[in-house]
From TrEMBL, chain A:
InterPro entries registered for this protein in UniProt: Calcineurin_B_homologous (IPR051875), EF-hand-dom_pair (IPR011992), EF_Hand_1_Ca_BS (IPR018247), EF_hand_dom (IPR002048)
Compartment annotation: Cell membrane; Cytoplasm; Nucleus
Residue intervals of the EF-hand domain: 26-61, 110-145, 151-186
Protein name in the entry: EF-hand domain-containing protein
Similarity-based family: Belongs to the calcineurin regulatory subunit family. CHP subfamily.
MF GO annotations: calcium ion binding
Phosphoprotein recorded as keyword: yes
Alphabetized UniProt keyword annotations: Calcium, Cell membrane, Cytoplasm, Lipoprotein, Membrane, Metal-binding, Myristate, Nucleus, Phosphoprotein, Protein transport, Repeat, Transport
Cross-referenced Pfam families: EF-hand_7
Organism for this UniProt entry: Pygocentrus nattereri
Domain of life: Eukaryota
A GO biological process held by the record: protein transport
Organism taxonomic ancestry: Eukaryota, Metazoa, Chordata, Craniata, Vertebrata
Signal peptide from the UniProt entry: none
UniProtKB/TrEMBL annotation, chain B:
Name of the gene encoding the protein in the UniProt record: SLC9A3
Keyword match Chloroplast: no
Domain of life: Eukaryota
GO terms for cellular component: plasma membrane
Cation/H+ exchanger transmembrane domain span: 80-473
Entry-linked InterPro entries: Cation/H_exchanger_CPA1, Cation/H_exchanger_TM, NaH_exchanger, NHE_CaM-bd
Protein name according to UniProt: Sodium/hydrogen exchanger
Species this chain originates from: Pygocentrus nattereri (Red-bellied piranha)
Compositionally biased region (Polar residues): 701-715
Length: 195, 731
């Protein structure tokens, strides 16, 4: 399976992905075979159903939203580039990358981009603010049914209150960053992709 | 306050000296513990003697017959001494801050030993290896295993095993070989000691001791990960130590050693480790199963825990497996099932007894270490002792550095340099080495080895034990987080955990989450069904949750009131009452974590499990309240027939069916024995109707009508619920 899969992936594609995401050659080929195994329809792109077929993801409380994060705005299919682009957010941050030229733009796995990814899990309507409702939705998904509305509401209120600095009762992205400044996001949001 | 316990101990010492016989049961290595038969014989002898003696004299009104109670009396006196010393230690003000408890206890032991030696001019009783391994060590290890932080331990298991197995091997070979080399070259008069002897010595001196590590690290509060690494290593390296020790010992007895023998030794290591593990697993599961049936004899339930654990230890010692591994595995295995099966009081009893026994054991061990240091014959050799000390430190440091360099590539959180230093420096030796060195067969230089071992133990416990705290502060090791995370941090971090788990699933990367989830699934589907009482299964988490809910309610009202008053106050981080934050945190942690489990059970594709919970609740329902049964079955059909759009509502419906039924059963049960006060409390309505109502926002109407019908009856119940639980709490 491996050889067949990698033959569909051309060298120049691999090079481009490498440049864009920072993955190594072997990591890209390995992830391509994973992509290929998920792609039941064999059309070179993944649909939502392909993701939902992953059993553990189906029982993840945030499963839907995670799946959603792979798909670009309004589209129903994600190709391998898009797949890798999303996964690039979870590459561990390496020290030598900090010396790369700043003109190349922020790498996808920088702390900022990681936090932006997490932020977008809350912020479905992409208005750059987490409203109380959006927060409540996510909380409800994570917490389950055993907590009453009022209690969940107070937890949500407390969360917003801790973050909100400009009084708009929403959490903006900068406020979100500030709240998580003590948390080691680079480490928490990284997967060691096997070589 | 020092002068409080000094006279007490001195008094006891005098008592001891008056009554101590050379043939004291606990101490000597040569005499077997005197059996009851002996004592009765003694008594008869004494009686006979008395008989000869008393016949001409009047009947003795008052007599002292010490031999009758000698063995237990002495044991109790020693334990009393140990406990009083510990008591006095805690009363003595500033000293506990500087000197760890273990050091003080050794000093007390030294004192007692010195006094005994001074008065009687013979060596005081020595800690016998048998007493140590069979009686003193198991409670400590059992306690450690029972309270082991399971999640942290398994997350770091790879690293712990890496350090334990490879690190110990490295240390043993390093110390043994280098000592041999040095002695050959050094001209200290030790040339004739063979390589095997040195390897044997290396194997027992390299072992990090869990008792000593526990007692010292308790007091310095390093971060959890570091603590579990050092502690886990000290527990697991027992397997390696046992194998190597026995291996070298048997090699010593054999005329020649071939390569095949070494290979066999390597295999034996696997056998010992896995054997201990299996024995522990077996006894743990049997214990869990036994406690399932203790509902009618709750008083003896704790006894099973102790008996089975001790049995596992003894069995594995009998089979020459690693006893420590067996008992730790047994404790870890049976803990969750036992806690679910036995009553609250039994749980408390188990925990307290464990703590008590392990505390007594530990104290006794350290005191005996001190006492046994005072001996008649010490063979001293400056170069040997100092080089041993130096090599121990050196090889440990090198080992930790090398191993960490390798293991950091594979870990998510790297072990920092500071952590490495603490791991290397925290490798304390203790009573295990001491007992092992006494068990060596006699050879010319044995006393030298004994002396060296004692010096190494004393050095590590005193010097390293006392200086580790200032060093930790100096190096600014990441301390155990005293500052609790804010609610936002907790919520967002949980989000990140779920996110990462999901991404790992997408990538197909079998990270920690995968195995953990697999195990949880297996556990819930098979083990818990088998090992936990049926009626206990859904109840406990909900009971706990409702207790939380009640507390939160009381706090929640004040919370909301304050919030309404000052919505614009941005700069204040209004400090919630600690209880409030605590309860929020607890709610978050229990629910955010439990959700995964519940989620797996509820949403599992394996219908067998779902049916089981339905069956259980159905049975429970029929047993308790017939009228609810019909509505129960109707709910099930409703729940399955309703077509739901989103994943989320589907989850909620299945969850609410099982949960709300359990809740309602609970309420019926709690309500029935008490006379009902039927006044509805409007403020309380919200709390119970909340979970019932909220899920039906997204659902189609059929189910909602059913449950709204319940609202009126459930409105009366919340008050009953708190009453019921207050009573339970009060009991």
């Amino acid at each position: 399976m491996g050889s067949r899969a990698s033959s569909l992936l051309r060298e120049e594609d691999i090079e481009e992905i490498k440049k864009e995401t920072g993955f190594s050659h072997s990591q890209i080929t390995r992830l391509y075979s994973r992509f290929h195994s998920l792609d039941k329809g064999e059309n070179g792109a993944l649909s939502r159903e392909d993701f939902q077929r992953i059993p553990e993801l189906a029982i993840n409380p945030l499963g839907d939203r995670i799946i959603n994060a792979f798909f670009p705005e309004g589209e129903d299919q994600v190709n391998f580039r898009g797949f890798m682009r999303t996964l690039a957010h979870f590459r561990p941050v390496e020290d030598n990358e900090k010396n790369k030229d700043p003109s190349a733009g922020e790498p996808l796995n920088s702390r900022n981009n990681k936090l932006l990814f997490a932020f977008r899990l809350y912020d479905l309507d992409r208005d750059d603010k987490i409203s109380r409702d959006e927060l409540l939705q996510v909380l409800r998904m994570m917490v389950g049914v055993n907590i009453s509305d009022e209690q969940l509401g107070s937890i949500a209120d407390r969360t917003i209150q801790e973050a909100d600095t400009n009084g708009d009762m929403c959490i903006s992205f900068s406020e979100f960053i500030k709240v998580l400044e003590k948390v080691d996001v680079e480490q928490k949001m990284s997967i060691r992709f096997l070589h | 306050m020092l002068n409080l316990w000094m006279p007490m101990t001195v008094t006891y010492i005098h008592l001891l000296l008056l009554l101590l016989d050379p043939s004291s049961a606990l101490m000597s290595t040569q005499d077997p513990p005197p059996s009851l038969g002996n004592h009765s014989m003694d008594k008869n002898d004494v009686d006979e003697a008395e008989g000869h003696f008393t016949v001409p004299i009047a009947f003795r009104v008052f007599s002292v017959d010490y031999h009758h109670v000698q063995a237990p009396f002495e044991i109790v006196l020693w334990i009393m001494l140990a406990s009083l010393a510990k008591l006095g230690f805690h009363w003595s003000g500033r000293i506990p801050a500087v000197v760890p408890e273990s050091c003080l206890l050794i000093m007390v032991g030294l004192l007692v030993g010195g006094v005994i030696y001074g008065v009687r001019h013979t060596a005081p009783p020595v800690l016998s290896a048998e007493a140590f391994f069979l009686y003193l060590l198991p409670p400590i290890v059992l306690d450690a295993g029972y309270f082991l932080p399971g999640r942290l331990f398994f997350e770091n298991l790879g690293t712990i095993l890496w350090y334990a197995v490879l690190g110990t091997l490295w240390n043993v070979l390093g110390i043994g070989l280098s000592l041999y080399g040095l002695c050959q070259l050094g001209g200290w008069g030790l040339e004739e000691v063979s390589l095997l002897h040195f390897l044997l010595f290396g194997s027992l001196i390299a072992a990090v001791d869990p008792v000593a590590v526990l007692s010292v690290f308790e007091e310095i509060h390093v971060n959890e990960q570091l603590h579990i690494l050092v502690f886990g290593e000290s527990l697991l390296n027992d397997a390696v130590t046992v194998v190597l020790y026995k291996l070298f010992e048997s090699f010593l007895r054999m005329p020649s050693v071939s390569g095949v023998d070494v290979l066999a030794g390597g295999c034996q290591f696997v056998v010992v480790g896995l054997g201990g593990l299996c024995v522990g697993l077996f006894f743990g599961l049997v214990a869990a199963l036994t406690t399932r049936f203790t509902a009618r004899a709750q008083v003896i339930a704790p006894l099973f825990v102790f008996l089975y654990s001790y049995l596992s230890y003894l069995t594995s010692e009998m089979l020459h497996f690693s006893g420590i591994m067996a008992i730790v595995t047994c404790a870890v295995t049976m803990k969750q099932y036992v806690e679910a099966n036995v009553s609250e009081k039994s749980n408390t009893t188990i925990k307290y007894f464990l703590k008590m026994w392990s505390s007594v054991s530990e104290t006794l061990i350290f005191i005996f270490l001190g006492v046994s240091t005072i001996q008649d014959v010490h063979m001293w050799s400056w170069p040997f002792v100092s080089s041993t000390l130096f090599l121990c430190l050196l090889w440990r440091a090198l080992g930790v550095l090398l191993l960490t360099a390798v293991v950091n590539k594979l870990r998510r959180n790297a072990v920092t340099f500071r952590d490495q230093f603490i791991i290397a420096y925290g490798g304390l030796r203790g009573a295990i080495c001491f007992s092992l060195v006494f068990l060596i067969e006699d050879f010319p230089k044995k006393r030298l080895f004994i002396t060296t071992t004692i010096v190494v133990i004393l050095f590590t416990v005193f010097v390293q034990g006392m200086t580790i705290k200032p060093l930790v502060e100096l190096l600014d090791v990441k301390r155990k987080k005293r500052v609790l995370p804010t609610v936002s941090e907790e919520v967002h971090c949980r989000l990140l955990d779920h996110l990462l788990s999901g991404i790992e699933d997408v990538v197909g990367y079998w990270g920690q989450h995968y195995w953990k989830d697999k195990f949880e699934h297996f556990n819930t589907k098979y083990l818990k069904r088998f090992l936990i009482r049926e009626d206990k299964q859904p109840k406990s988490s909900i009971v706990r949750l409702y207790q939380e809910l009640e507390r939160r309610e009381q706090m929640g009202e004040t919370d909301e009131g304050k919030r309404e008053r000052s919505p614009e106050n941005q700069t204040h981080s209004r400090s919630l009452l600690p209880e409030e934050m605590d309860s929020i945190r607890r709610i978050l942690s229990t629910n955010l974590r439990n959700f995964n489990n519940k989620h797996i059970t509820a949403y599992s594709r394996h219908t067998l499990h779902q049916d089981f919970t339905v069956d259980a609740s159905r049975k429970a329902c029929l047993r308790r309240h017939q009228s609810l049964g019909e509505r129960h079955s109707s709910t099930q059909t409703h729940g399955s027939q309703v077509h739901l759009n989103s994943l989320y509502s589907k989850i909620c419906s299945t969850l609410i069916c099982t949960n709300c039924l359990c809740v309602l059963h609970l309420l019926i049960v709690s309500q029935s024995p008490r006379s009902a006060h039927r006044d509805p409390h409007s403020t309380r309505e919200g709390s119970l109707n909340g979970p019932v109502r909220v899920t039906f926002e997204g659902l189609a109407s059929p189910s909602s009508t059913y449950l709204q019908g319940q609202d009126s009856s459930s409105a009366r119940m919340p008050k009953k619920l708190s009453f019921a639980f207050e009573n339970e709490k009060g009991k």
